[in-house]
Amino acid sequence: MENLISLVNKLQRACTALGDHGEESALPTLWDSLPAVVGGQSSGKSSVLESVVGKDFLPRGSGIVTRRPLVLQLHRINGDREYAEFMHNPTVKYTDFVVDLTLIDLPGLTKVAVEGQSDSIVQDIETMVRSFIEKPNCIILAISPANQDLATSDAIKISREVDPKGERTFGVLTKIDLMDKGTNAVDMLEGRSYRLQYPWIGVVNRSQQDINKSVDMIAARHIEREYFANTTEYKYLAHRMGSEHLAKMLSKHLESVIKSRIPGIQSLISKAIAELEAELHRLGKPIAADAGGKLYTIMEICRMFDGIYKEHLDGMRPGGEKIYYVFDNQFPVALKRLQFDKNLSMENVRKLITQADGYQPHLIAPEQGYRHLIESCLVSIRGPAEAAVDAVHAILKELVRKAISETDELNQFPTLRVEISNAAFESLDRMRNESKKSTLKLVDMECSYLTVDFFRKLPQDVEKGGNPTNSIFDRYNDSYLRRISTNVLAYVNMVCSSLRNSIPKSIVYCQVREAKRTLLDRFFTELGAREIKHISKLLDEDPAVMERRANLAKRLELYRSAQAEIDAVVWAR
């Protein structure tokens, strides 16, 4: 029993230290099992608690004295000296206690507001009381004065509403010794007036006169025992009457409640720990204070970003496949859409062949005409080539954005996120420019030097029965020009087929490969030359995030401690 109560007390004190008073708590069950004392104003609630505890410590007076819930923990300690303390004032210790309990003294229910009180005081108090006793694991100590009708008892009324079966309500009758002569509380104590699952318990509290005479709690308890033992009506009930019996009943019941709730509390704590660890991981580690630590943090975050970026390119994350789509679909389709027919129309072929001959017609084949026709076709390939470079560039930039958003550590530092993003984009822009130069050079090389073997393998006019003695103008007939057009188109298609393979290689080499190798190299170089104040600005974490991380770390420490405490108690059992 001592271990169980000690466990709950430790968890409650830890929660209180964190400002967790049960409202919207992640561990509500740690508070739900506390006995709450409820009753009408001046019904003797605080006096009952003092009798249970065995110490005069609660405020007294007329009207509303208990103005807020008071939480008091009592537990045995080694040795003869015992103490109790309120969690809002842990430095003040009260000694000479004997029962393992944690109690909540609630303000008394009232029916009307008196002078000096707000009009909402009645509802405010009831709402406050309900917030405690409606919790399904809270043990309700319903205090009713014996010299009033139970039918009008505020404590019974509100307890019945929140606990209709009476499974967690202990009825306590006070002021039995103040009943009119000729009346007694036997019907109430026997449950005939109002039955609860647990037998009613009668108590005799100290009167104001006793308190004025400094009658201590030990003497008061002796008087109480004598009263029930020597009063004819209550003698047969004396063994289950009095504050001492009430304390034992509450302690025993509280033990059973705590035992039943331990598995649920363990599960709740484990879940809370996992959630806290996940959020702390998402928020990232605290910022280092020294320059070296800051620089290391930046480099580590950059390494994480770079690793994620490479995973996108290498296929471990989505996105890199879009580059292959450019090479396998977009670029070939663009090549096929080139309108070589316009360049190779009869009119254009005749024009270029004639112009290329100048004042002296060609002797065997219009070589210069062929060159001009081929160049006019190949130049148009520059457009699809540049478009392929730009398409890959756009994909690489999009993957930078994805990698940045997937690097959780960058969410912690907005300025660093922008700097890395800008540095990556600048690098990609430089790579695109180099890639365009290299890719267009491939096209220009095809224009500057033709593959001679292709033309050597073409059939000559004589072999086809042509008559070289015909007039030069006869050689510019449609059939002849059509064959030239066909030969040029065949050569251009051969070049397109070659460039379809070489241009993707150039793009990969100049853009994709370089992005994997040197994306942040210039950023690292510039970072090393920065002063510490500029490096610190990169780690400009949101103060709200810093505060939340500290609070989460503190709460995680609480839950881990709670988990260890519970495990120790469970294994001890």
From TrEMBL:
Pfam families tied to this protein: Dynamin_M, Dynamin_N, GED
InterPro entries: Dynamin, Dynamin_GTPase, Dynamin_GTPase_CS, Dynamin_N, Dynamin_stalk, G_DYNAMIN_dom, GED, GED_dom
Ranges for domain GED: 481-573
One function term, GO molecular function aspect: microtubule binding
SMART domains linked: DYNc, GED
CDD domains listed in its UniProt record: DLP_1 (cd08771)
Domain Dynamin-type G, chain residue ranges per copy: 1-263
PROSITE patterns in the record: G_DYNAMIN_1, G_DYNAMIN_2, GED
Any one GO CC term of the record: microtubule
Entry keyword set: GTP-binding, Nucleotide-binding
Gene3D superfamilies: Dynamin, middle domain, P-loop containing nucleotide triphosphate hydrolases
Entry's family note: Belongs to the TRAFAC class dynamin-like GTPase superfamily. Dynamin/Fzo/YdjA family.
Name assigned to this protein: Dynamin-type G domain-containing protein
Lineage: Eukaryota, Viridiplantae, Streptophyta, Embryophyta, Tracheophyta
